[in-house]
C-alpha cells in the first residue's frame, strides 16, 4: 500500500498520527474553550478598566473647559445647561496587535500523573483566555501564519476553527515573520528546541523593535525528573528513544542541563528587553493569565522589566 500511494512507511505513520491528533484536539476543544472563557471572565471581573481620555470615537465623559484650549473643543449643547463651559472627552484608543503563538507540536501532548492537564491543553486554555481578555480591552489578536489579527468578540471561536482546519506541520516555534514595532508577541511553548533555533526565532520577532514574552510551559515531571529504575524515554517528535538503566542517576545532569538551557534563553530575552518565565501545569492557569496581562501593561507604560515571575522561579 505504501508503494502504491507513493508514501514511505514513515510518512504513513506521520499522517496517521496527525489525523489522530486532529481528532483528539477536535474532541477536547469544547471543554478547553469553556474553561478559557471561565478563567477570562474571572480575571476580567477582577481588573479595573483601562479607559482614559484621548482621541478615540467612544464618548467617555465631560470635563470643564480650560482657559487656553481651542474654542472648537467646547460642547455647546452641554455647556448651555449651566454657567460653565464643558469639553466632550472621548475614550483613549489603545488598540494594538498582540500575536499569540500556542505550541501544538507533539511534545506538548505530554502529561504526567501530577499535572492538571497536558502542556497542550494548558497552552490552549491560556491562549484562548488571553485572547478573550485582550479583545475585551479593545486589542486585536492574531496567530502567526494561521489567523489574521481580529478584534472580534468571537475571537476564541475563530482561533479554534483556525486550528481545526490547519493541516500544516505542528511547529514548536512561530513561523518566520516580522511583527510591527508596536505589536506584542506571546510565545507559549515548552521551548525544548535547540537554543540556536530559539535565538533565530527571537531575532526575527524582535527585528522591528517589537516586544514580547516567552512562556515555557512544562509538566511538573519535567521540572523534578521523578524517575527511577529502568526507564525508556521516547522523543515524541520522531527523534528516537533512549533507555536509562538507573534513571535516578540522571537527575543531577538533567537538572544542570535544564538550568543551562533556561539561562541561555533568558540571556537572549534580556538582550532584547523581552520577558521570559516558566509555568508548570500543576499551577493555576489564571496565575499565568494575570502575569501576561500585567507584563503587557508594563510594556505599554515604558517601564518594562524582566524580573516578573509566574510559577516556579525560572
TrEMBL record:
Residues in DUF58 domain copies: 61-261
A Pfam family recorded for this sequence: DUF58
InterPro entries (UniProt xref): DUF58
Family matches, as PANTHER family: BLL2464 PROTEIN
Protein's recorded name: DUF58 domain-containing protein
